[in-house]
């Protein structure tokens, strides 16, 4: 706020797989939430603001209560928006589709994975997508600071592709983790080392 000085604190700690190791190995199970991602004229969805997480928390609680790992949120027009805390991608016939982020947080991890995918020779297109496009995809995966790259095996209890973590998602996860841990010199500029 204009008259309030900002104070910043950075915390660092060990972090396991956000949705669990099983979700990484086998793929996360998503269900479409009854909560929609709010439109940009209600809250600035592109901002990483604490108040924005209420919508995500409601969707996540609903998904977990239904036995899923994560929620899939639609926008006010019925297009796929994102997970409760992740950007979504899908793969069809060797092409990677990143979801347009008209109401979504512009994820740094999303942008990093797009760059890695292009560097690995994949074609990447940015699109608006409907649920049925995800249902028919060969693979679906999510990206985020906490989620890193997490494969999706099921949406609304429908198997995606073979119903397991897909090879494209697993390859992108491998390279992303190498980049994030300083084992990929071509992505060294992405890192800021914290010393104790």
Automatic annotation (TrEMBL):
<dbReference type="InterPro" id="IPR001544">
    <property type="entry name" value="Aminotrans_IV"/>
</dbReference>
<dbReference type="GO" id="GO:0009099">
    <property type="term" value="P:L-valine biosynthetic process"/>
</dbReference>
<keyword id="KW-0663">Pyridoxal phosphate</keyword>
<keyword id="KW-0028">Amino-acid biosynthesis</keyword>
<dbReference type="InterPro" id="IPR050571">
    <property type="entry name" value="Class-IV_PLP-Dep_Aminotrnsfr"/>
</dbReference>
<dbReference type="GO" id="GO:0009097">
    <property type="term" value="P:isoleucine biosynthetic process"/>
</dbReference>
<keyword id="KW-0032">Aminotransferase</keyword>
<dbReference type="Pfam" id="PF01063">
    <property type="entry name" value="Aminotran_4"/>
</dbReference>
<dbReference type="GO" id="GO:0009098">
    <property type="term" value="P:L-leucine biosynthetic process"/>
</dbReference>
<comment type="similarity">
    <text>Belongs to the class-IV pyridoxal-phosphate-dependent aminotransferase family.</text>
</comment>
<dbReference type="GO" id="GO:0004084">
    <property type="term" value="F:branched-chain-amino-acid transaminase activity"/>
</dbReference>
<dbReference type="InterPro" id="IPR005785">
    <property type="entry name" value="B_amino_transI"/>
</dbReference>
<comment type="function">
    <text>Acts on leucine, isoleucine and valine.</text>
</comment>
<comment type="pathway">
    <text>Amino-acid biosynthesis; L-leucine biosynthesis; L-leucine from 3-methyl-2-oxobutanoate: step 4/4.</text>
</comment>
<protein>
    <recommendedName>
        <fullName>Branched-chain-amino-acid aminotransferase</fullName>
        <ecNumber>2.6.1.42</ecNumber>
    </recommendedName>
</protein>
<keyword id="KW-0100">Branched-chain amino acid biosynthesis</keyword>
<dbReference type="InterPro" id="IPR036038">
    <property type="entry name" value="Aminotransferase-like"/>
</dbReference>
<comment type="pathway">
    <text>Amino-acid biosynthesis; L-valine biosynthesis; L-valine from pyruvate: step 4/4.</text>
</comment>
<keyword id="KW-0808">Transferase</keyword>
<dbReference type="InterPro" id="IPR043132">
    <property type="entry name" value="BCAT-like_C"/>
</dbReference>
